[in-house]
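Model: Ready when you are.
Researcher: Fold this.
Model:
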Amino acid sequence: MPIPLRIKDVADRAATTTFTLRYYESIGLLRPKRAPNGHRRYDEDDVRRVIFWRKLHETGMPIRTMRAYAKLLAKGDSTAADRKAILVSHREAILERIALLKKNLGMIDKKITFYDDLCATA
């Protein structure tokens, strides 16, 4: 049987903070087990979940959507289609954001070229 992980272990492995793990627990994204002394204990599934939540957060998914996804996840496989729909929608939002960033980057590149030319003639 694998040794349960402490909160600091999970934070380190998921490249996050213990504060974030406690927050995720408070909003229902994580449900760690408790040791007899009351300390949180995590397993490998929890580590994978935290990494997944972090990726969703880093890509701009609102916490309320993450919570909705977590509630569906807790209900089991019967909600797979709804969970997929959330991820498909989020993916589309990410692609739109990437397109906007590329467009804006193009404008910044043009401005840099303008300044390169201006500096070269000065």
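Researcher: Now this one.
Model:
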Amino acid sequence: MPFEVIASDRAPAAIGPYSQAIRAGDTVYLSGQIPLDPASGELVEGGIEAQAVRVFENLKAVAEAAGGSLRQAAKITIYLTDLGHFATVNAVMARYFEPPYPARATLGVAALPRGAAIEADAVLVLG
């Protein structure tokens, strides 16, 4: 089965040797998104809430470029440099998803690219 590269100019370009997403059949693997503004390529300002919103907006843009939506997310992984932001990130995530929620893991990490406080990736299943 051939892979299809998914790309959107509404999300930041990859900052390394990877694709924004890869589609394999009905499954789309969205690469991790950090809170980079797609227009400027700079990290958004405004704290963890603003960063979380930008991350989910970036994921949403890539999901839409794949012909889907975040509602088709089967799995989300969130990486936080401070697990004290867990509740804030949950509140932001609730703006983008509704029940049944995707499966999710949240991991505390020492650091993220560009000094971001949050990164998230996702797996979509298109029907």
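Researcher: Key takeaway?
Model: The chain has one domain: 4-125.
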